């Protein structure tokens, strides 16, 4: 079983592989672009969720001096999740699609570099082997249950994100079938007053 940092780095690698696939596509490969971007959305939604639910809170608890990096990470997630939620609804043929994916890729690469170069090494020395191994198990389990949509408008810190996680995970597939995801879920959760 990988420890928490190895697990998160593996996620980063999988997403980077999808970015490279996307970057190789021709301008009019709309069907393949859509498929790859849908995979990117799902992987990043789950990855962001498990970091926000379990990894970032554990880091904050383990070391005060990593607090600022976590807070910056949350803001970067927030922007990325908005972009992901826009891409869910944007046709690949739209003139804004490719530019939006390009900016998404730039933002995620920047965020991943900060996590891997700055945050993770500090976390490894602050938390130690045993705690990181246990946290790896927690992340693995949370990943299986994490929502496949980004939900940028929902809370991203405990306890509220933990309380909403099962609702988001269970409601998402059912709601997506009739209403393509996030607006439907917002309504299901009573957060969307516009109806
Ligand atoms: Fe990450
Ligand atoms: Fe992150």
Tags for this model:
6 helices; 195 residues; binds fe (ii) ion
Give structural notes.
With 195 residues, the protein is an all-alpha fold. The chain has helices at residues 4-24, 30-62, 67-89, 97-145, 160-179, 182-188. The chain is built from six helices and no strands. Helix 1 (4-24) runs antiparallel to helix 2 (30-62) and helix 1 packs antiparallel against helix 4 (97-145). Residues 175-179 have low confidence and may be disordered. One fe (ii) ion binds next to helix 1, helix 2 and helix 4.
Briefly say what this structure is.
With 195 residues, this protein is mainly alpha-helical. The chain is built from 6 helices and no strands.
Instruction: List the ligand species.
Output: fe (ii) ion
Overall number of strands:
0
- Continuous helix count: 6
Strand content: under 5%
Q: What structural class do you assign from the helix and strand content?
A: mainly alpha
Radius of gyration: 17 Å
Distance between the termini: 44 Å
Largest sheet: none
The dominant shape is globular
Task: State mean pLDDT (0 to 100 scale).
Answer: 90
Can you give the helix content as a percent range? over 70%
Order of helices and strands: HHHHHH
Tally of structural domains:
1
Which regions contain 5 or more consecutive residues with pLDDT less than 50?
175-179
């Amino acid at each position: 079983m990988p420890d928490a940092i190895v697990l998160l780095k593996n996620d980063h690698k999988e997403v980077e592989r999808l970015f490279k696939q996307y970057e190789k596509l021709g301008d009019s490969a709309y069907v393949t672009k859509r498929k790859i971007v849908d995979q990117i959305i799902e992987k990043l939604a789950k990855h962001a969720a498990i970091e926000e639910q379990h990894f970032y809170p554990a880091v904050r608890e383990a070391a005060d001096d990593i607090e600022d990096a976590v807070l910056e990470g949350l803001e970067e997630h927030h922007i990325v999740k908005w972009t992901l939620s826009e891409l869910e609804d944007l046709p690949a043929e739209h003139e804004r699609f490719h530019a939006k994916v390009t900016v998404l890729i730039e933002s995620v690469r920047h965020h991943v570099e900060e996590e891997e170069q700055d945050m993770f090494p500090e976390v490894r020395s602050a938390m130690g082997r045993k705690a990181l191994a246990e946290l790896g198990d927690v992340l693995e389990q949370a990943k299986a249950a994490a929502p496949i949509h980004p939900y940028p408008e929902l809370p991203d810190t405990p306890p509220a994100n933990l309380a909403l996680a099962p609702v988001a995970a269970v409601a998402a597939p059912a709601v997506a079938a009739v209403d393509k995801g996030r607006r439907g879920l917002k309504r299901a959760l009573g957060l969307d007053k516009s109806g």
